[in-house]
Amino acid sequence: MQKTTRNTTSLAVLVLMLAPALSHAVDSVSTNVAPLAPTVKPAPAPLHPFPAVKADEYKEADVWGRIRTGYAIPDIDNELVTKHVKWYSTRPDYIARTSARASRYLFHVVQELEKRNMPTELALLPIIESAFNPQAYSKANAAGMWQFVPGTGKDFNLKQDMFKDERRGVLASTDAALSYLQRLYGMFGDWPLALAAYNWGEGNVQRAIKKNQALGKPTDYESLYEHMPAETREYVPKLQAVKNIIANPAQYHVSLPVIDNTPYFTTVDKTSDIDLTIAAQLAELSVEEFKALNPQFNRPVITGGEQTKILLPQENAEKFHLNLSQWGRALSTWTTHKITGAKDSIASLASRFGTTPEVIRQANNIPAATRLKAGSTILVPKISTSVHNDIAEHVVDNAVMAFEAERAGRRGGRAEKQTNAQRIKGKVAELKTRVSGRNAKTAANETSRYKRRGG
């Protein structure tokens, strides 16, 4: 049996070796011999440009390599690309800071792109939008690493209320951004135009296309430059520049930090209201690192129903569950209070709830020199350790805050009178020191005049 197999194998090898010669011999046969019928090759099966692959099927050592393997947007090459390649490649500190932030989120973004069969270089878009800073906020009120303006955020069901802004949330904003990009690609059938619409708005891109069509001009991205604002004109070239650097960092003398091709975080269910600082403590994380993974929470307490998730690094999630089981104390120290009228001043509220005005202003992001209007809902400390009720969901959903400027020269508040009295007392002491070399009568007259003026 083994001998027969070896002979068969040898014969097959010999046939393969002689195949080119046999083919040449056939081509040299006399024309009297009928030619062979041409071989009809079947059309190749259509290749999917970005196949969905499970994370554990990848051989790449880091996420950068994984991104490179899924590039699928046609390249552009122009002066703007060259300009931005130079800008990024000559700023190693910027690359390092951005990569450090991106290391928390890139694996998740790439994984979500692959699930949707989308080009993986779109994972680099937050570098252009926000330098991967989920707390980024623009003059146009765009927020988060994907930079959603409020209206577009609402279109994609990103919750924006007093307690939470999901435009900043890692999971929600990434899902919304990829859905938006998919929708734009469906509208334009072209990734550069879809990206232009992401930055400029689909209506503006559609109008620019119609203008060029009316003039008999091409309607590709670069052909629409003359109609675009500078930011949109440079948007895709910026992405192309980053894409070039990630594809071959050595060529541009850039050193990319390794980002492991493994999940950075996992989700933890929130079972009840919990202070942000307590959650960080239970997870054994700094508050800064906790906020980097959970940037959507606007207040010092994390509220919401059972769908509210907390993101933690895997090993810290295990610590969180262990420490939570041994906690044995209240998880939240905050509740809400609704302002009913002018008597609910910040100073009076601080006195009633055993805290300071500064704490109330900071917890509620109340600007200086403003007071709360009636109907506003604010966070205040729980005054009884026996109060364990969570903040009601309807309160979370409907809570609003409105401010107005403090009235200049208003003398009604006790705290303000005390402040004036203290200021006068301090000024009197200062005047006494300054006039120590004068006679007592002169000092008394100057002090009396200052008191009459009210400071």
Automatic annotation (TrEMBL):
One of its GO terms (molecular function) is peptidoglycan lytic transglycosylase activity. One of its GO terms (cellular component) is membrane. PROSITE patterns: LYSM, TRANSGLYCOSYLASE. The keyword Signal applies. It comes from the Bacteria. Residues 1-25 form the signal peptide. Residues 335-380 form the LysM domain. Residues 435-455 are annotated as: Disordered. Pfam families: LysM, SLT. The keyword Signal applies. InterPro entries: LysM, LysM_dom_sf, Lysozyme-like_dom_sf, Transglyc_AS, Transglycosylase_SLT_dom_1. Keywords: Signal. GO terms for biological process: peptidoglycan metabolic process. Belongs to the transglycosylase Slt family. This is Lytic transglycosylase. It comes from Massilia violaceinigra.
